[in-house]
Amino acid sequence: MRHMVRRIGIAAATAAILVGVAGTGARAAGAVNPYTAEGLCGLGFRTVDQDPIHDGATGIRLGTVYLLHNPFTGYGCAVTLKSTYVGVPTRTQVYLDPEWTPLALDDGDRRYAAGPIYAFVQGGCVIWGGLMEDSAGVHLHDRANPAIGGAVTCF
Predict the structure, then answer these.
(1) Which of these, 50, 84, 92, 122, is most buried using a 10 Å CB contact count?
(2) pTM for this one?
(3) CA 32 to CA 23: how far, in whole Å?
């Protein structure tokens, strides 16, 4: 009898753990990102372009890379906002590579967004983009040009 009670206890604990893990994934998949690109970049920045990141196999939108510009300062800002895995640390990246200044990059396990990153872009062109990674692999933004690694915008 004691062994039966122990087995039932172990089975109940295992079931509770599985429900907890499954519940965490469900909340992450349905969670809404509380951040916006404009809010992260700050006052004066306006969205110039954006490009979604989709899972190539399933078509699910994982996130969006945003390029913003502040016409008063001449600076650009880039952010990758997560649409799935919100609140769950997964590799998320954003980069901004202007003609005249060094590459700006934020890459790591992020819960909500990569960035904001800033660079002076006025009067030149910038290569920008981002990616997300999950158990299925690395997913680039939709318009990523394999030859240069990103999209190009000129100011």
Answers:
(1) 92
(2) 0.79
(3) 16
CATH class of 37-154: mainly beta
Using DSSP's 3-state secondary structure scheme, residue 98 falls into strand
The string of pLDDT tens digits covering residues 76-87 is 999 999 999 999
- Parse the chain into domains and list their residue ranges: 1-30, 37-154
**Which is nearest to 67 in space by CA: 46, 84, 93?**
46
Please tell me the distance from the alpha carbon of residue 129 to that of residue 152, in angstroms, as a whole number. Answer: 9
Q: Is 123 helix (H, G, I), strand (E, B) or coil?
A: coil
By residue count, the chain amounts to: 155
Identify which of 108, 111, 141 has the alpha carbon closest to the alpha carbon of residue 127: 141
Q: How many CB atoms lie within 10 A of CB 88?
A: 18
**Chain-centroid distance, C-alpha 99:** 24
The helix/strand/coil state of 28 is helix
